[in-house]
Please model this.
Amino acid sequence: MEVHEVTLTVTSTPEGAARARHQVMNEISGWRPAIGTDGMCTAEVVAGELLSNAVQHTGSEAASVTARLRGSRLRFEVRDRSSVLPHARPPRTDAENGRGLLIIDALADRHGVDHSADGKSCWAELDLSVPTSVTSSITQPPLQRS
Model:
């Protein structure tokens, strides 16, 4: 089974998160051309939300993002030095943010957080063998989570 992986450093600014998202998406676009537009859009949204959460909520000086494709599983991991765990909360209807974990939950096949001695890793996995659509995944409730 072919494995592809890239790890990038992320500066703790919104611009740094956007730059890392673009870089990681440019990298993975060559790994599996058959991902298709919907798969790439879903992957970009998930990666962007993980990166935004790390930059916005951790206060860390730097983070890193790793994208790994093993078979049909694409995994994003964002590591930071904060021990603060992310938690989903119902956003106010007029809030401009606060939906990141809800979006990740709707789009990813699996997601979670791993602790380490020097921080945490927030991760999400996508099964690229299953066709996805960003809009249908967000508007329709998920059938089952593992």
